[in-house]
Design a protein that fits this description.
alpha+beta, 5-stranded mixed β-sheet, DUF2188 domain-containing protein
């Protein structure tokens, strides 16, 4: 089952919450919360964990839902290496 990361408004701030932690992280803007959520999702995907990122608007509607499939890289090889 994929890990769920959510970004949603909480009063005047925005919360980034995940099923991996009981404590949300708060941001002053939705954009900052979304950037942090995407970075976290990418790091988890790089570690082999499937992730679903859900972004909510101030009115509660879903703005977007994104899947980050697990990515595995061979040890010692860089993804950007090209000959």
């Amino acid at each position: 089952m994929p890990s769920l990361i959510r970004v949603e408004p909480v009063g005047p701030v925005w919360a980034l919450s995940t099923c991996l932690s009981e404590n949300p992280v708060y941001f002053s803007t939705g954009a900052r919360a979304e950037v942090a959520a995407r970075r976290l999702a990418e790091r988890l995907a790089d570690a082999g964990e499937p992730v679903v990122l859900e972004i909510r608007l101030r009115d509660g509607q879903r703005a977007g839902r994104f899947l980050f499939p697990p990515r595995f890289q061979a040890e010692g090889l860089e993804a950007s290496s090209a000959a």
